[in-house]
Amino acid sequence: MHHPKFTFKHTDETEVEKMIRQLSHATAVGVDGISPRVLKSAVKPLSIIISKLINKSLDTGVFPDGLKIARVSPVFKTGDRTDPGNYRPISVLPTISKLYERVAHQQLSNYLNKCSIVSNSQFGFRKHHSTESCCLAMLDKMYKQLDEGCLGGVVFLDLKKAFDTVDHSILLRKLKSLGVSDLCEKWFHSYLHERMQRTKVDGVCSTDHVVSHGVPQGSILGPLLFVIFINDLCDTVELCGTSMYADDTAIFYMAKDADDLRLSIQYDLQSISYWMSENRLSLNTSKTKFMMLGSKAKLNNVPRFTVSLNGDPIENVESFKYLGMTVDNQLTFHHHIDKVIDKTSTKLGLLYKTRWLFDENTALMLYKALIIPHFDFGSIIYEVCPQYQLHRLQVVQNAALRLVLLEEMTCAIYDMHERLNMDTLATRRAKAMVKMTYNVLHDKSPAYLYDMLVPVSHGNRHTRATESGELAVPRTKTKYGTYAYSFRGPLQWNLTDISLKAAVNKIQLNRLIKTSWKS
Q1: Going along 158-247, which residue ranges are E strands?
Q2: Most buried in the list 143, 270, 300, 340, measured by CB within 10 Å?
Q3: Which residues of the chain, if any, have pLDDT below 50?
Q4: What pLDDT sits at residue 22?
Q5: DSSP state, 478?
Q6: Would you state the pLDDT for residue 464?
Q7: Which residues contact 89 (CB under 8 A, 6 or more apart)?
């Protein structure tokens, strides 16, 4: 596909000053020793100087060597502490380098969006995209096909150190194919070439080592460059659907026939294997998983089968954690509820042991900071699970409110919520759904979600439904159809007060939800 040429444009002191003011004081200081606080202390004169330096870099296609040195600190994850593979490298770059990168990132990102270059299947590091919208889009497709009586299969791919193994020559070639000018390509080559890193452990630094592969960790541009690098993987997948959040990739296929399902997934896995080889990336077969999808009856009537990758069978699992959500083979999220309850109950236990140290306001603040986020994360996704499962979550919240208020079991649940001005979890989920649908309708979410929502239409006649902004609720055949966002979103939206739907922006919407919500 032909794209117009991408060339860098000059920045100015106003744009650079804005970027400096937006730097967080919590940002770690790089090897240059210059902190955001130092830059902000003389922001006016420095923004003039830095803007001229950035423009000189863009004009000459040279990224300064002094800004390509990273300090890496290894952070332990899990497992054997003597195994280097069990440490996550945290990379800190010079603060000024992030200003250079921010200018380039904004211009390249705008170009990619204007030309619609990034695949609709890619949700990572893109404006108005999130892990939540990624899961909603994928699950909506699955639920609709399950509603038609199909069987499904999904493969969760695990790429080995994908960000660290990007081949620079291939990346530059892909940038060129997207319309990047010769001068811009020279700048990106300079940005990637001969980057250095030093490792710091217990206050001791290693000597500098050249980084010959990968996109810079801890950088502004790195994630966007990776998205460009992996973008054409979607073109390789011919039969299956694709869901991507950066390198977290899943392919899925739905079919009435089990043999068709197996052969289609296997065909695309072969294509993916070839793409990986061509792009010098590799898949971790032991961490790549396959899961069949369907109702309990459907799964019981179909023999379990496996698919393979380069001749190695992929493990068939009944649940898998994808983008923070534990997905099970019936797409009911009961395993996810179990994990949420485990996490929240553990933190509630810690709060119980230390409750005597805090007053009521502090205890409530700790509850909101430590426990509520676990209930809220993915709530509009997991709300499809049975009511008894959702009630288990509410039981945990009720226990937490009793602890905050130091009340007995006999205290009325409604009174506790009123006294602390806390919503029930069901109300929180309903509000989250309204906010999501508002964002979708106002172009603050991926286009695919917008395409799911159809306004109620009665030809040329104006009715109360059209005036109130109601959305069409699709007909369904089974419970799976009612699980789809394209069903649940419009249903909740139509129950919402018209004043909320008419909000002019998200700020007004949030204010109205606080003051005018009707349960």
Answers
A1: 195-201, 204-205, 209-211, 241-245
A2: 143
A3: 458-467
A4: 92
A5: S
A6: 38
A7: 72, 73, 74, 75, 217
- Angstrom distance (rounded) from CA 328 to CA 333: 6
10 Å Cβ neighbour count for 45?
A: 9
Structure tokens at 218: 């801890």
> Are the beta carbons of 99 and 54 closer than 8 angstroms?
yes
Contact 123, 137 (CB under 8 A): yes
Ramachandran bin of 254, using left for φ above 0, alpha for ψ from -120 to 50, beta for the remaining angles: beta
CB neighbourhood size of 166 (10 A): 22
DSSP 47-90: HHHHHHHHHHHHHHT---GGGSEEEEEEEE-SS-TT-GGGEEEE
What stretches of 106-240 adopt beta strand conformation (E)? 151-157, 195-201, 204-205, 209-211
Measured between alpha carbons, how far is 275 from 169 in angstroms, rounded to an integer? 16
Strands 312-313 and 308-309: antiparallel
The per-residue b/e assignment along 304-330, b for 16 or more CB within 10 angstroms, e otherwise, is eeebebeeeebeeeebbebbebbbbbb
Instruction: Give me the pLDDT at residue 468, please.
Output: 55
Query: What's the chain's Rg over C-alpha atoms?
Result: 26
Mapped onto helix, strand or coil, the DSSP state of residue 438 is: helix
What's residue 452's pLDDT?
A: 87
Dihedral angle over CA of 250, 254, 258, 259, nearest 10: -80
- 416 closest CA partner among 437, 426, 401: 401
